Amino acid sequence: MAQYIGSVDLGTTSNRFIIFDHTGQIKGVAQKEHEQIFPKPGWVEHDPMEIWYNTQDVIREALSKSGVTGSDLAAIGVTNQRETTVVWDKTTGKPYYNAIVWQCMRTADICKDLEAGRGQDRFRAKTGLPIATYFSGPKIRWVLDNVPDAKVGVEKSQALFGTIETWFIWWLTGGPDGGAHVTDVSNASRTMLMNLETLQWDDEILEIIGIPGGILPRIVPSMDTDTWGTTRKDGPLGAEIHVCGALGDQQAALVGQTCFSEGEAKNTYGTGCFLLLNTGHKPVPSSHGLITTVAYQMRGQKPVYCLEGSIAIAGALVQWLRDNLGMIKSAKEIEAMAKTVEDSGGAYFVPAFSGLFAPYWRADARGALVGLTRYINKGHIARAVLEANAYQTLDLVEAMNKDSGVELNKLKVDGGMVANELLMQFQSDILNVPVIRPRVTETTALGAAYAAGLAVGFWPDMEILRQYWAVDKTWEPRMSAQDREQGIRGWKKAVERTFHWVD
Fold first, then answer.
1. Is 19:29 a contact under the CB 8 Å cutoff?
2. What is the largest CA-CA distance in the chain?
3. Rg of the chain taking only CA atoms, in angstroms
4. pLDDT tens, residue by residue, 279-334
């Protein structure tokens, strides 16, 4: 009997393969970064072939290091950076253009045209989303408008679109030789093309944006007992393994945190920052700048929806400090640098490098470091970088409290930045609620593993998964009300300074 589940985590900056056992513990892991391509200010791309090659490498490495073989795996689950868009030739497998990353701003004019006379919420009633550069639909339109080979591919019925999990699953299950062209409901709900009620592509929106339905993948449940195909024996796993679980990365973290009940929430601190609240089987519209999206769906069951607050730049701000300014040599150094000072010295860093996402949705915003005096040193800037993540999360929590009508009383956290204890304490202080870090912080990959494992019966039901979730550490608020209010007031002023920067 297969003893493990394999989870492919296709992140924004790296790809990982993690092997989990029956109790959700990690048996093996490998990780590899891929290039971040910035052709113009505000443009962000990835090489899809590099992602495919690197992911094969990490699968082989994790199996080798752990002593596990492909045939020891019961199934494969996949989680991914969500709105990132690839259009490729189904006969050759070659992309027509680099992947356009979710952070990319190049579709601003397309979005303005879609909004004209109708407003940013033109499609929100159907999709739960505002019109924004964040989502996949405008990115597809950009490729079809600007890449001649892609346009020809559509005319010849050879072009396929997918977010990164679709691209990877297609290759993993055979590619040009019969690969499965599918996307799960959680990822489909991020395209701005799927109707939240029907869970199908919306013909009216496709016609308005100008996207041919023939290039779109089949929408499937996140946890699918009818597997989409198997891996190939000549592939990186060396065995035929069911591929039957997929979730967008933030929905995967919600599942990995076992937030299966209405009202449960988690926040992930990764490249971006994402707060999700389980709202049950009915989509809850937002009137405070959040988005309504599909959390997950088990085949044969009603989908579970959530409210989400999305922040474009979180851990990416630390990377920027490392790679662009050279202030630190590794991301881990920022905590020590920030600890050299007691506070940020009145400095605030608003990382609107890709505009501002929730709850503001301001494509005209750009990053700003404000409140500077001669007193400020690199320790204060490091601290302002960390505090920016906590303040951005505060904005999301305030909006979520208003939309849900329920005050958040604790916050489950995960992602790479939760190892930063200074940030976690400040987050608890500024929210004035306990912040809880689980023992297994790789919740995104774990959620994808749970999806695949539930699909094939590796785990019998969701309730048993709750037993495996355990607390590692809890931070309690200890900031005075006066200091909290002063800090929040300064942050709100700083955010306003970023507006109207781009005409």
1. yes
2. 66
3. 22
4. 899 898 888 989 999 999 999 899 999 999 989 889 899 999 999 999 999 988 99
